[in-house]
UniProtKB/TrEMBL annotation:
One of its GO terms (molecular function) is pectate lyase activity. Its EC number is 3.1.1.11. The keyword Ribonucleoprotein does not apply. Residues 373-657 form the Pectinesterase catalytic domain. It comes from the Bacteria. PANTHER family: ACYL-COA THIOESTER HYDROLASE YBHC-RELATED, PECTINESTERASE 53-RELATED. The gene is pelA. Belongs to the pectinesterase family. Pfam families: Pec_lyase, Pectinesterase. It comes from Flavobacterium procerum. It catalyses: [(1->4)-alpha-D-galacturonosyl methyl ester](n) + n H2O = [(1->4)-alpha-D-galacturonosyl](n) + n methanol + n H(+). This is Pectinesterase. SUPFAM superfamilies: Family 10 polysaccharide lyase, Pectin lyase-like.
Length: 666
């Protein structure tokens, strides 16, 4: 019997080696997750699907680490047919089985081939059959001797299974195949058992709930070891996906809420901000060395293995001896394994919203650790005024601080000072969370610079975000009156209404870059003005009356000023003569790309503000716009129509990236 198993394993290795040796496409996991839906109806996809059907064992599962898109010889196909009845090496490790089920779902959606549906359902039966009575899943099923029988969170194996079961139990549209009511009920029970197992395996450290190990004993539920270098420990990586799964549950129980809060507290406690991984690559792009470099206030990372009692990170070679640093282990394990992870960052990012949704408040008096402050006019939050919440924010925090503002109309001026960086000002809904004030130039009456004091909301802190709000200057058409003033760098404003008349939005700051996405911005004269590099993407720009949309004051030598991409330019009926822009300062830069322009836009497009020198020094341009207002042949001669090659230079990366990276995507 042992000889038969060895022969089968040898054959599997040969198949895998042969397939990898002729890999001329892209990785199997990328094919499943990144191809367009229509591709799954192509002849190429159908050919690959035949391989996937061949690899599936009759028990319903698949082996791991196979590039299933590779062409099979007749002999290989025959060998795989012989393996189908063996159930050897069927597993959920490294994404196996769950990823093939996703592939079959996408194939069935496009082709309605019943074989794909049957394959998917066999895979689902396999997952349900493999579950332990205590709710956990082993790494291999049928059971394989050794650490493979442990409840396996390693590489997100059990979480992947749970997400499949969850989608079936909740009858979502994620999968195209709809099992019978009986199977749905089985999935509901299986998911509940799985959650119960997760809650029971969360490790208590001196009576305090923390996180999870990569493996837990299938009988005692205690943390367990796997390979020689995978000792009993708490896992910074696997615990992240487990916590995110718990956070995805609608109407969580008190036990789930406690589990999430405890895990988040543990992530906060164990994050590492004084080290950064440096990888040394050879010419082929392969890692030949890893080093941990000391840094100050680095982006948080977590160790893959931490001591059960002290949370101290440790590292192991194949000899199983614990070391305190990766420098103390051999190059093979040091460079061939992921010893650190940033996966918990996603948990900490989503926790503030989850906490609000589930009735969890963070005390604003705890200035050192505050990450969420809630504002509610009915007294159910930490404060009733937004500015009071800003005052409670820590100065220069290491992590984002969310000020969550519940629905209501807040009649106040709000200032986020320069020292309050990393603040997220987030409303409960764009339409019903309104910040309004009615200052204007004449009301302020502080001299010729009065405009800059008229703001309703002022953002001076770098790395801030404003989301899901309406910000309004309610003074009416009585001269300059700013709704939102942003004089900071790396500020993102999304899904907001910015309402005013003259000078609605002021964007400035030394070398500042700002991103406005999915916003509605309205005004009369120069209602978007300032010196910042600002990208407006998928925004509605609405003119209340005939006047000027922009008044840029771009500094000399700055590569980009205002850039509008995929925006829609609309107006009130009385606004019949609207200019795209005029130069507040002579080096102004404003560009419209792929925008829709209504007939309110004047055919000449641009005006020089009685500054002849601006015609030589400013840069006003358009590319591939549409609508009645887009009349490129009738624009003023000193403006530009970009070529396709020139327009390609206006990517979000080129406009907004800086030394911190792609901050706008976070």
């Amino acid at each position: 019997m042992k000889m038969i198993k060895k022969s089968i394993l040898f054959l599997m290795c040969c198949l895998s080696f042969g397939l990898n040796a002729q890999n001329n496409y892209k990785s199997w996991s990328e094919i499943i997750r990144k191809n367009e839906s229509a591709w799954f109806g192509t002849a190429e996809a159908k050919k690959i699907a035949e391989n996937v059907l061949l690899y599936q064992r009759d028990i319903g599962g698949w082996p791991k680490n196979i590039q299933m898109q590779q062409e099979l010889s007749e002999k290989q196909q025959k060998d795989l047919l012989a393996l189908k009845k063996t159930a050897v090496e069927t597993t959920t490790d490294n994404g196996a089985t769950t990823q093939e089920m996703l592939f079959m779902s996408k194939m069935y959606e496009q082709t309605k081939d019943e074989r794909y549906k049957e394959s998917f359902l066999k895979g689902l039966d396999y997952l349900l059959e493999a579950q332990y009575a205590n709710g956990g899943w082993p790494q291999f099923y049928p059971l394989k001797k050794g650490y493979y029988t442990h409840i396996t969170y390693n590489d997100d194996s059990m979480v992947n299974i749970m997400n499949v079961i969850k989608n079936i139990a909740q009858e979502t549209n994620f999968y195209s195949i709809k099992p019978s009511n009986g199977v749905v009920e089985k999935c509901k029970k299986a998911f509940d058992k799985g959650i119960d197992c997760i809650l029971k395996t969360q490790y208590k450290q001196n009576g305090v709930l923390t996180a999870w190990c990569a493996q837990h004993d299938e009988v005692t539920l205690l943390p367990a070891k796997a390979r020689a270098f995978e000792l009993v420990s708490l896992s910074g990586h696997e615990s992240a996906r487990i916590t995110l799964l718990l956070m995805s549950i609608e109407k969580p129980s008190a036990e789930i809420i406690t589990a999430v809060k405890s895990a988040v507290a543990w992530f906060e406690k164990t994050k590492i901000t004084n080290l950064e991984e440096k990888r040394v690559l050879n010419d082929a792009g392969k890692i030949i060395d890893k080093k941990m470099i000391p840094v100050t206030n680095g982006s948080p990372i977590w160790a893959r293995f931490m001591d059960l009692d002290t949370n101290e990170p440790f590292f192991c070679d194949r000899d199983g001896i614990r070391k305190k640093s990766i420098d103390e282990i051999g190059s093979e394990r040091r460079n061939g394994y992921s010893w650190y992870s940033d996966a918990p960052k996603e948990v900490l990012k989503k926790f503030p919203d989850w906490a609000v949704k589930n009735g969890t408040k963070v005390s604003a008096s705890d200035k050192k650790n505050v990450t969420l402050i809630t504002v509610a006019q009915d007294g159910s939050g930490d404060f009733t005024k937004i500015q009071d919440a800003v005052y409670a924010c820590p100065a220069f925090p290491y992590e984002k601080v969310t000020i969550f503002v519940k629905n209501g109309t807040y009649n106040e001026k709000v200032r986020i000072p320069e020292w309050n960086t990393n603040v997220i000002l987030k409303g409960e809904s764009k339409e019903k969370t309104i910040i309004t004030f009615d200052d204007n130039f004449s009301k302020i009456a502080l001299g010729r610079n009065s405009t800059f004091y008229t703001y309703t909301v002022l953002v001076e802190g770098d790395d801030c975000a404003v989301l899901n709000l309406t910000i309004k200057n309610a003074s009416g058409d009585r001269g300059q009156g700013i709704a939102l003033s942003v004089v900071a760098n790396r500020v993102k404003v999304s899904n907001c209404n910015l309402l005013g008349n003259q000078d609605t939005l002021y964007v400035s700051g030394k070398d500042a870059k700002q991103y406005f996405k999915d916003c509605y911005i309205e005004g009369t004269t120069d209602f978007i003005f300032g010196s910042a590099t600002a990208l407006f993407e998928n925004c509605i720009i609405h003119s209340i009356k005939s006047s000027y949309i922009t008044a840029a004051s771009t500094p000399q030598g700055t590569p980009y000023g205002f850039v509008f991409k995929e925006c829609k330019l609309t107006s009130n009926p009385e606004a019949k003569d609207v200019y795209l822009g005029r130069p507040w300062r002579i080096y102004a830069k404003t560009v419209y790309i792929n925008c829709e322009m209504g007939n309110q836009i004047k055919q000449e497009g641009w005006e020089n503000w009685s500054k002849p020198e601006a015609q030589k020094n400013s840069f006003y341009a358009e590319y591939n716009c549409k609508g009645e207002g887009y009349q490129p042949t009738k624009r003023v001669k000193w403006s530009h129509q970009l070529s396709k090659k020139q327009a390609e230079q206006y990517s979000i990366e080129k406009i907004l990236s800086d030394k911190t990276g792609n901050w706008y995507s976070k």
